[in-house]
Amino acid sequence: MTNEELWVQYKEYNSKEAKDALIIEYVELVKIIAGRLYTSYNAHVEFDDLLSYGIIGLIDALEKFDHKKNIKFETYANIRIRGAIIDQIRHMDWIPRSTRQKYKRIEEAVARLQKKFGNDFTDEQIADELGLTLEAFSKLLGEATTYSVVSLEEKIEDSLNFDIASNVVDIQPEDRFVENEMKKILSQTIEQLPEKEMRVMQLYYYSELTYKEIAEILEISESRVSQIHTKAISKLKIALNDLY
Question: Where does the RNA polymerase sigma-70 domain start and stop, copy by copy (predicted)?
Answer without folding.
Answer: 49-62, 210-236
